């Protein structure tokens, strides 16, 4: 029987440079996957990467861990990749990434993931290379990196942000796993905070850093302080720190219905460069 070679396969450590090269075609879109690959390689715990090749050249890939994230997929490559992803039969917390790719992949796979909490199909993807101070926006001088020993201080703010944003708490029972995720961010210097009277009143994380790009996530202001300009001055300080010390490009994506956050990001000079989508399980 004649067997034809499938264009898709699970990538191995020898494919790391090719996968990072593919991500580098659009660093702002692909920083999440690039950061995961740099941190854990092609075969990190609980993750797989499937690639689509033509003439021996990697054209598209899909990362699957706690999140399923397509990279440089097209209408032509998504079908074969979706067939592979379907066979993994693993539980994912979300599908996320550039809207056209995520929604196109989701259309092929949604029957296999019946328990969907929400489809957020329009999340403006924002970026800046300009320090807010150049635009006349003064950053809050109290913003600083959270220290590695401050995980207990950061935990309540992170937990509140996650629950409000996702719709369910980040853990049930023991907080050990969630604390370890927070600890890693603190150890990397990727969490920024304002601490007043022994508690965090503002927090933002760098969820992914790679390819001269830093993706900001987990932005949170204590509820009683919202609407008074704290978010604008604090985020201005975060972006200032990021552009000076971490990467020349700062990005984030935001829900289209979060008008207050979108106004804040516009004030500090972030402009839309695309649209993301997230499917929450």
TrEMBL record:
Keywords: Transferase
Designated name of the protein: Putative acetyltransferase
Boundaries of every N-acetyltransferase domain copy: 141-281
GO MF terms held by the record: acyltransferase activity, transferring groups other than amino-acyl groups
Family matches, as Gene3D superfamilies: 3.40.630.30
Pfam families named in the record: Acetyltransf_1, DUF4081
Organism this protein belongs to: Nostocoides australiense Ben110
UniProt superkingdom: Bacteria
């Amino acid at each position: 029987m004649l067997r034809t070679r499938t264009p898709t396969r699970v990538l191995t450590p020898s494919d790391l440079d090719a996968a990072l090269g593919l991500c580098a075609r659009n660093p702002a879109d692909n920083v999440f996957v690039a950061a995961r690959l740099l941190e854990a390689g092609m075969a990190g715990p609980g993750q797989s990467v499937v690639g689509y090749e033509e003439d021996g050249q990697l054209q598209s890939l899909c990362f699957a861990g706690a999140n399923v994230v397509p990279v440089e997929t097209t209408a032509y490559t998504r079908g074969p990749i979706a067939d592979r992803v379907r066979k993994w039969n693993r539980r994912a917390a979300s599908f996320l990434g550039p809207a056209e790719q995520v929604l196109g992949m989701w259309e092929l796979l949604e029957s296999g993931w019946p328990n969907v909490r929400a489809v957020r199909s329009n999340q403006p993807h924002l970026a800046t290379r300009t320090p807010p101070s150049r635009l006349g926006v003064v950053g809050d001088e109290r913003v600083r990196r959270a220290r590695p020993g401050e995980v207990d201080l950061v935990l309540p703010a992170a937990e509140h942000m996650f629950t409000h944003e996702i719709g369910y708490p980040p853990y049930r029972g023991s907080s050990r796993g969630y604390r370890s995720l927070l600890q890693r961010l603190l150890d990397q210097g990727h969490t920024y905070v304002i601490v007043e009277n022994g508690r965090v009143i503002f927090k933002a994380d760098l969820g992914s850093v790679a390819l001269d790009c830093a993706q900001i996530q987990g932005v949170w202001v204590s509820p009683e302080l919202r609407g008074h300009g704290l978010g604008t001055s604090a985020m201005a300080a975060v972006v200032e720190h990021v552009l000076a010390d971490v990467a020349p490009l700062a990005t984030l994506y935001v829900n289209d219905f979060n008008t207050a956050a979108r106004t804040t990001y516009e004030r500090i000079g972030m402009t839309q460069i695309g649209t993301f989508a997230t499917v929450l399980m």
